[in-house]
Structures are given as structure tokens and as C-alpha cells.
Fold this sequence. Notes:
By secondary structure, this protein is mainly beta. 0% of the residues lie in helices and 45% in strands. It has one domain (8-79): Sandwich (Jelly Rolls). The protein has strands at 8-9, 14-28, 34-40, 44-47, 53-57, 63-68, 78-79. Residues 4, 8, 10, 14, 53, 55, 77 line the site of fe (ii) ion.
Amino acid sequence: MIKFDQIHTHADDEVRYVIDGEAIFGFVRPDGSQVELTVQKEEYINVPAGTEHWFHLTPARRIKAVRYFISTEGWVPQYTGREIRLHRAVA
Ligand SMILES: [Fe+2]
């Protein structure tokens, strides 16, 4: 099973438009620090190719989004093995 809640990259940009619900994207910044961003209804996100990131649902456990593919291969996660160090709220 493909898991997006571990730190990974993609060969292509990961582009989503959120129609409803919400979810959290986490990012590894160039200095190695980590940050999470909540994306909500009517928001658009573009995670550039090669960016270390992760994804998980919020406690509401619901998101409806359109994903824009360049190629299906480009969506395959490449796990980097880096640990997520941020404390997570438990659903
Ligand atoms: Fe991803």
C-alpha cells in the first residue's frame, strides 16, 4: 500500500485543488526544519517536484480534492527515510 504519511518526494509536482474538507501537508525546508500547513476548501497547493513532504488528514478525516497529474509515474512516492520530528495532534 502506498503511504503518503511518511516523508517522500515525487518526480513531478504534486498539485491539488481542495473542493471540500481539509488535510495537512508537512514540508522539510531547505535548512532541514519541518513545518505543517493545513489546506482547506477552495485552496490550491503545488508541491514542487523533489520537495520532501508528507500528507495526512485532520481529525475531521475528510478531504475532497482534484489532483492534477503530469504522469502517473510522477506520483509514485520516493521515500527519503527522514523522520517526521513535529509533534502531531492525535485524531
Ligand atoms: Fe506526496
